[in-house]
C-alpha cells in the first residue's frame, strides 16, 4: 500500500494486486493489535541482511522521523512509549490500516482483491505483462511487495519468491525469525510451561556465546519464547539450517550477581523447612521445582542438610541452565523471516533491480529482517516509499 500510494502521488496510474480478500490483514496483528509502527531508537544492529550496509543505506532516505510525519499527515497521531516504541495514539492497528486504505482511495490507486498472479512476463519493448486468474495487466513498471513466508494465514505464502526467481533474482533461503525455540529438555519444559520470568538468554553456537538478550522469557511446553528469545531466534535459525549445535543458556536470576552466596545467606537466615519453601517469593514455584530437579535435589529436602557443593550446583542451575535448541517454531508462528531476494542485486536507494529494468521490491520479500520493536514495519514503509518514487 505504501508503494502504491507513493507511485500514485508521483503521477503513475497504479494498480495494487492483492491475493487476499482484503488488503492489510497482517498489519492488524502487529504490536498485539496496537501496531508498533516504528521506533525512534534506530541503529545498524537493529537490522540483519547478508549485505550489512543495505538496510541503513535505505533508511537514511526515509527513517522513523519521516514515518511519524507521514502518518501524522494521514491523520494518525503518534504515541511514543519508553524505549522509542511508536504506536498510533488510538492504540489500534486498525487506525494505521484505515489510513492507508483511505489514502489508496484518495490517490486513485485501483485495488484488486482475491487476485492470484499466475505469471509475470517481460515485454520485448520494456515493461511487464502480469497474468492473473482474473485478467491480464500490462505495466511499464512493477513492484513486488509479496511478503515472505511468515504468518502464511495472512497471505505471506512465499509465492513472491518464485516470481522474483523467474525474473532472474537469487533467493537467500527464507527461514523463520522472531519466533520461539524448541528445546530437547522436554521434562523440564512440561513442568515449567506457562511461567513468565525476567531472565537473561545467551545464545551459544558450538559452546561460544554469540548473542545475549534480557527481558521477560516465556516457558512453554515446547521450550523458550518471549521477546529476548525472539531477538536471538534469527541467528539460531541460520545456525540450525547449516547443522551447527545451538544452545540457549538462561539465567533465571539475572539481578543477583552472586547467586551462590545469596542462596547460602538465604538458607542461614531462617528455617525454611524444605528446598521448595526456600524458593518461595524468589521464583515461580513450578520453575523453582523444575530447577531443583535439574540440580539433582528433592523439593522436600531440608535446606540446612544440603552441602556447600550442592548449593553451588543449585546456583549454577538457576543462573546458567543450558538448553539444546533442536528447531525453531515454524513459519506459521514466526513474526518475520530471515532471507529473501538477495539485496546484492537491488539498488538500496530506489529498491530497483540491478538485473531487470523497471522491477522494484518492497517489504519482507527482500533479505532484510529487523529485531522486535517496530523495525520490520519501518522497513516496509521505507522500502515502499523508495520503490514507489518512480
Write structural notes for this entry:
The chain has 390 residues and is an alpha+beta fold. The chain folds into 2 domains: 2-175 and 338-388, FAD/NAD(P)-binding domain (3-Layer(bba) Sandwich); 180-329, no CATH class. The protein has 12 helices and 20 strands. It has a 6-stranded antiparallel beta barrel. A 3-stranded antiparallel β-sheet has the order 2-5-4. A 3-stranded antiparallel β-sheet has the order 7-8-9, with no helix packed on it. Helix 6 (186-192) runs antiparallel to helix 10 (285-294). It is elongated. The mean pLDDT is 96.
Q: Which CATH C-level class of the largest domain is it?
A: Alpha Beta
Specify the structural class: alpha+beta
Distance separating the two termini: 15 Å
Q: Summarize the amount of helix as a percent range.
A: 25-40%
- CATH homologous superfamily annotation of the largest domain: FAD/NAD(P)-binding domain
Domain count: the total is 2
What is the CATH topology classification name of the largest domain? FAD/NAD(P)-binding domain
Flag low-confidence runs.
none
Question: Taking Cα atoms only, what radius of gyration do you get, to the nearest Å?
Answer: 25 Å
Number of strands: 20
Q: How many H/I helical runs?
A: 12
